Amino acid sequence: MSTVELKTELQQMIEREMDTRVLEAIRTILQKTSLDPLLKEKLTKRALQSEKDIATGQFFTKDEALKHIGRK
Q1: 26 with 14: CB under 8 angstroms?
Q2: Helices (DSSP H) in 1-72: which residue ranges?
Q3: What is the pLDDT of residues 8-48, one digit of tens each?
Q4: Rounded CA gap, 72 and 63, in Å?
Q5: CB-side exposure of 38: number of CA atoms within 13 Å?
Q6: What does the alpha-carbon distance between residue 54 and residue 62 come to, in Å, rounded to a whole number?
Q7: Which pTM value belongs to this model?
Q8: 34 vs 1, 4, 24, 58, CA distance in Å?
Q9: Beta strand spans in the chain (E)
């Protein structure tokens, strides 16, 4: 199935759909896949850095984190 055919089929299905929850779910899926490229790059870099920090033991325990943000 080509992209054009798929889009047409999806448009028809959306047009017939009456369940608001289903339509909201579709919107959420489409919004999440169309993140701003710069934001997506930033989030990816942060995630990769976090993985490195965890691997090297550079992180706070739960108690340390709570103390750091002033909740304990």
Answers
A1: yes
A2: 3-16, 20-33, 37-55, 62-68
A3: 999 999 999 999 999 999 988 888 776 677 777 888 899 99
A4: 8
A5: 0
A6: 14
A7: 0.45
A8: 22, 18, 15, 32
A9: none
